Task: structure prediction
Amino acid sequence: MTDTPQNTGWSLQARLAWRLGAVLLGSMLLVALVISQYAWFALDNLDDAGLQVQASQIARHAQFRDGRLVIDLPASLQQAYRESGDGYMYAVLDAQGGIVAASSDKARRSVSDIPPAIRMTGGTVFRLLDADGKESPYHALLDDADLPTGYRIFVAQGRIHPDVFVDTLLSEFASRIGWTLPVVLAAALFIAIWTIRTSLGPIRELSLRARQIGPETRNLRLPTHGVPEEILPLPVAINSALDRLEQGFEIQRRFTANAAHELRTPLAVLTARLAELPDDANTRRLAEDIGRMNRLVNQLLQVSRLEGAMLKIEPTDLNWIAETVVGFLAPPTIGAGKSVALTASSSPVLVNASPDALENALRNLVENAIAHTAPGTEVMVIVLPDGSIAVRDHGPGVPVEQRKHIFERFWRGRDRQHPGAGLGLAIVSETMRSHGGQVSVSDAPGGGAEFILRLPLQVQPGTH
Result:
């Protein structure tokens, strides 16, 4: 009996799916990080570009009046600077860093407060106090634009504008693109699972075929056509092992059959010579020993036939099989002070079977029951309409813990008072298996053991 393997972890498909899902999620997070870094880089470039545009616009409206540089902006630009609330500011510096023009008085004061090192070099970021007394960061650019020689424009914009830009970018991303990420991830994971499942299909087919290989189907082999190259060595190695096992099995079967055939001749000679000896106690004991040897040889031949030969299957009536066996065993049973009786079915019970093999199996079963039933009791053989034959005795029965072993070859258990090699019930079991049936043992009503042979009924034409 083989134990069903216990699942001690995730399946290969689940492991691949989770790992691939983790890779996809990590990849999407990495892409999002790269995009965010690129967005900040692009934002800085936009800031610089915007400041350069402002500087160019201001430079186009610069002119000298009365020996002074004046910035005469159009009304629309002046309004834009006023409405920005000093979010945008500019100041025109002379060669000494003095402020000759500014977008507002606050801008003039703010730029004057900037340390000269920053003001004259156009440091990228600086901080100014706002109306609430808090520091606000400003992004600045120093550009000579198209101003007269020695003059430069200091242009700055508050960080409130990049924040608005980032908020807009994030809101647009979430509303237009962000919601697609979970969908894309789910779709990619579904496609990955489907791909993994279809890729593992050959392994499932190999497993299903491997489950079909048994004593009766040992000629089956695992498929190799269409198997992925990475998996192909496995079925090839298993098929090679099965070939070696079948070859060894066939050698063993032939040895058993040949040995049994070779033993039959000397046993027949011994039986003939024993008949010439005087009928005394020693002769009878020798006859019993030779009889047991003949029975063992016959059982070995039956085993070899069941293992190797193709059974000739034909419609068989279980009533006829039971009548033949009971009629054959009745005389020796009565001579042993016991009896055997038959309860046949009222109508034929037809099954597809080998009559010889089925007769041998039932005879082994009834002989086993006769050997174990108490003297003066009866062994009952009952044919049932459902394709079953029950054999009941009045012996000690079969302990529950031994019932899974009694059909194994050469197993005799602790009770060895009855002669035999432990092949009779194994022959019964193998015969049932080769016919698609089964044999079971339980307690008989009133004590003893009850063995039941179950065979599938013959399917009549027109029935389902």
